[in-house]
């Protein structure tokens, strides 16, 4: 499991507050493009004497091997799967030549035996609406550390990130702009020092929680007062309704941005439809929802068209490559949310309990998830009440432009 989209951790409704305060920081003066101050050329990476080029789809196995070798050396509690790398390289909005930089060691007997020793990528999610983000990822093989490669590679990423922000759909807007990296709390100190020297500072903290599925699981029944609501599992005809529910649930979550149809199809290589629990409102008060200023345009169009309305959900995945690293099997809740108009009804515990039962029935030992420690909707307390306990943590670091 990679750290992609880590800022989008679980959100739920234990407080009953229909409208938590906005969590995105205010913009600073000047457009994104002005503040990005994008360089016209990118700094060269000369350290280590490697040969550098952009990425190709056929590089996926080499990138996978490098990422997992560095992950093992750094004690990361997860591993990346080949399908995840392949999916990243196939995303149509990523420019393989410009957004990736791969450094190869070429032995004396020719380039045919080149070995990937360093890797970097920069992505700017196309769905960003209120915050412009450039997300930086990469690594240097343990055998080639201490040569200055990582420092120069990070400088390249920052420069390319500034270019991506200046080229983004938000370039002319006066909204926050961030360069973003993610790091495990117990990552090597040298990594933290490298980020700090480059100007990054920790802005958000996340906890990885797990829950023993051998312990009793509470009822997954939808509250009796909500007779129009139906608990079900994911089906293809509900996927678009699920995307719209996710966007509504996360509008008041710090730093979270809408998922477009294009980005929604990503990060699904480990998706488990049979563990993904949904609550659908088969008889919504359409007039009231359409009259509400909280109803977004896409949801309004779906309501007028008579499309299904997902009101609460728990999206699950099975990251089998992480089982050996963690030392146990687990089902992972990638995302949990409740529509703003449906909060305070106890729907979050229902979808969570349903998901845990499905995972347990499939032989998983634990249920797991990551949660923003400053989640505004009471998620941390809910998970504690459901029996989840913290195992480790991570953080998001940013340069705010």
Would you mind describing this structure in some detail?
With 401 residues, the protein is an alpha+beta fold. The chain is built from twelve helices and twelve strands.
Strand order of the largest sheet: 1-2-3-4-5-12-6-11-10-9-8-7
CATH top level of the largest domain is Alpha Beta
Largest sheet: 12 strands, mixed
Which secondary-structure class do the elements indicate? Answer: alpha+beta
Kindly report the CATH topology of the largest domain: Aminopeptidase
Q: Kindly report the average pLDDT value.
A: 89
Poorly predicted sequence stretches spanning 5 or more consecutive residues: 13-24
InterPro entries: Acyl_CoA_acyltransferase, GNAT_dom, YpeA/RimI_acetyltransf
Protein name: GNAT family N-acetyltransferase
Keywords: Acyltransferase, Transferase
Domain N-acetyltransferase: 50-223, 262-401
Short description:
Pfam families: Acetyltransf_1. The protein is α+β, with helices and mostly antiparallel strands and 401 residues long.
Would you spell out the secondary-structure blueprint of this structure?
Elements: H1 32-36, E1 51-53, H2 60-73, H3 82-90, E2 100-105, E3 115-123, E4 132-140, H4 149-167, E5 177-184, H5 189-198, E6 201-212, E7 229-233, H6 239-249, H7 261-264, E8 277-281, H8 286-291, H9 297-304, E9 310-317, H10 323-326, E10 330-338, H11 347-361, E11 366-372, H12 379-385, E12 389-400
Helix pairs in contact: 2-3
Organism: Myceligenerans indicum
Keywords: Acyltransferase, Transferase
Biased composition (Low complexity): 1-29
């Amino acid at each position: 499991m990679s750290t992609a989209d880590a800022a989008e951790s679980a959100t739920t409704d234990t407080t009953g507050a229909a409208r938590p305060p906005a969590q995105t920081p205010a913009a600073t003066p000047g457009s994104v493009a002005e503040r990005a101050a994008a360089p016209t050329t990118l700094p060269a990476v000369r350290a280590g004497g490697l040969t550098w080029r952009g990425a190709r789809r056929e590089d996926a196995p080499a990138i996978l091997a490098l990422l997992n070798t560095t992950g093992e050396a750094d004690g990361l509690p997860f591993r990346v799967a080949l399908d995840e790398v392949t999916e990243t390289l196939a995303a149509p909005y990523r420019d393989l030549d410009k957004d990736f930089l791969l450094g190869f060691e070429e032995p004396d007997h020719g380039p045919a035996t080149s070995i990937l020793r360093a890797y970097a990528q920069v992505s700017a999610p196309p769905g960003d609406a209120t915050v412009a983000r450039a997300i930086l990822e990469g690594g240097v093989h343990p055998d080639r550390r201490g040569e200055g490669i990582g420092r120069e590679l990070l400088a390249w990423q920052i420069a390319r990130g500034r270019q991506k922000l200046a080229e983004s759909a938000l370039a002319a807007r006066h909204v926050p702009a961030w360069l973003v990296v993610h790091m495990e709390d117990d990552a090597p100190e040298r990594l933290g020092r490298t980020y700090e020297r480059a100007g990054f500072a920790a802005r958000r903290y996340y906890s990885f929680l797990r829950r023993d599925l051998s312990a009793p699981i509470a009822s997954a029944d939808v509250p009796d007062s909500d007779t129009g609501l139906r608990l079900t599992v994911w089906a293809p005809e509900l996927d678009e309704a699920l995307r719209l529910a996710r966007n509504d649930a996360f509008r008041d979550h710090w730093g979270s941005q809408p998922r477009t149809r294009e980005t929604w199809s990503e990060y699904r290589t480990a998706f488990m439809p049979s563990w993904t629990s949904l609550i659908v409102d088969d008889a919504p008060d359409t007039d009231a929802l359409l009259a509400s200023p909280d109803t977004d345009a896409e949801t309004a169009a779906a309501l007028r068209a008579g499309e299904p309305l997902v009101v609460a959900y728990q999206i699950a995945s099975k990251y089998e490559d992480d089982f050996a690293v963690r030392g146990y099997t687990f089902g992972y809740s990638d995302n949990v949310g409740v529509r703003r108009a449906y909060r305070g009804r106890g729907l979050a515990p229902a979808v969570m309990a349903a998901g845990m039962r499905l995972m347990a029935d499939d032989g998983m030992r634990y249920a797991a998830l990551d949660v923003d420690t400053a989640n505004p909707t009471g998620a941390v307390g809910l998970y504690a009440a459901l029996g989840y306990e913290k195992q480790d943590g991570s953080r998001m670091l940013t340069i705010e432009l």
